[in-house]
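Bench notes, bay 3.
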Amino acid sequence: MALALVPSAAMAYGSGDYSNKGTVSDTTPAAGQSFTVTVTGPAGASVTLTITSNPASLPDSAITIAGTKSLSKVTNASGTAVFTVTLSQGGTFTLVATDTASGAVLSTQTVTVAAAAGTSGQLSSTGSNALPIALGAGALVLVGAGGVVVARRRQAGAAA
């Protein structure tokens, strides 16, 4: 009898509780654009949304979920938890919503963010080309030195 009840006890929680495992309002947002992740379940259940970047070299600072990388919310009376997410760098991100109490995965979504236009991974060029300025300064020094030489020769010629 106990063996017959074990599977039903293990499946009693959550078997029909999460009819809508989750939705993402935009699966291809632009970098820096906010979107929402909605998870539906039983009222009052705690849900955790965790976001992982691919490639893993993207910094955690590129992920914002109301200021953190992982956030837990309690579903409202209708059983819905809504997360607002902003991804500031291009890449592929995996969004996993789990039941905080049991650790059961409720929803897995993938979001692809295109790199912002004009970002090539290199720093922008700043400053100026110093060659024309250096040539101009050198020419002024030569003219000034020539003026000093001419003035000294006139002084020497007038004193003699």
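Next record in the batch:
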Amino acid sequence: MNFALQKTLELLIIIGLGLFLQKKVAKQDLKGVKVIILSVALPATIFVALLKIELKGTLLVFPLLALTFNLLMLLASKYFLSVTLPTKENAKKRTLTMLLPSLAPGLSCFPFIVAYLGDDSLALAAITDVGNKIFVLILLYILAMRWYRQRTLEQNEVSSKNKLKGLLFSLLNEPINMVILIELVLLGFSINLSSLPGFIQNTILSMSTLMTPLVLLFIGMAVRIKSGEFGVIFSMLLRRAGLSFCLSSTFIFLFPSLTPALLLLVVVFPQSSCSFWPFAHMSAINSLEEKDNHPEPTFDINFAVNVMACSLPFSTLLIIGIFSFSDFFISAPALLGIGLTALGISYAPHIFKSKSFLRDREKEKFNSPSVKGSFKSKNS
């Protein structure tokens, strides 16, 4: 059996076990599983991976690339991705503008990178995620506060500054970022994993082995998709994936000499699911608006929850598919074709709907009494 197919089946079986456990695990219990993943298993895995690489100044390119991608997707989300939503649904548009440019590679991407590409690629992905973390923790919070302050008469500058300081501290206190900072210092002193005492090495390695099965079980247990807005959300996620494929194909076209592992990283990383942090910012704004008795909320919180619930399984299946057919997905023309096809499929229902609407309007105008009367008078 093909190695990629065998690996994919193994991962799908674990996700299936998670689906089977849905009825046995309460929704609030998933928070504990998520804490273990993000605070123990994932930092340990990244710690092992980062201490195996050689520190170079060129590594700063990776977080800059991620931040550039986030900013391009932010512009696209505001002016391109959510344009098909009705004009009256501004709260949903702002919600999508916050969520669609964000990435959560820790839950949806890193387990597959380490399974298919190994620790070296995971280390590069972890460094790349630093740029994404700056975007989701700081820049998106500033954007959310800007929208809130535009829509309210109160200028809570002090609370905004305090909140921004709190987010900066959370950026530094997050276990994954603490691990990355500590390891950059260790690498600066030429300290690698083998330099550490044996019991520390074994402890970290034992914790790192938890990550992949825990994340896959979490994905299976967390999938609870609501049917009401599924069509709209699926269309937006497909549009997001298509645009990401187009951006990845452009990068591969400009740098075709990169290794296959690095090319796959360029394709897979942008397909990560939407991050939780924009939702945290939106929830904070929603709390402020409830205190102010604001008549219209800035964001649609329930819609945001549904988007995140659909985004995780969508990205997971997409990433598994990319790794299963890796030779096909590192071709720039193939990626561009897939991206344009996904964009076309996502826009097709709205194009047909608008054409049908225009035809109905023309029929109504033609059948109206005034038009019929003028037509009879001309004939007479």
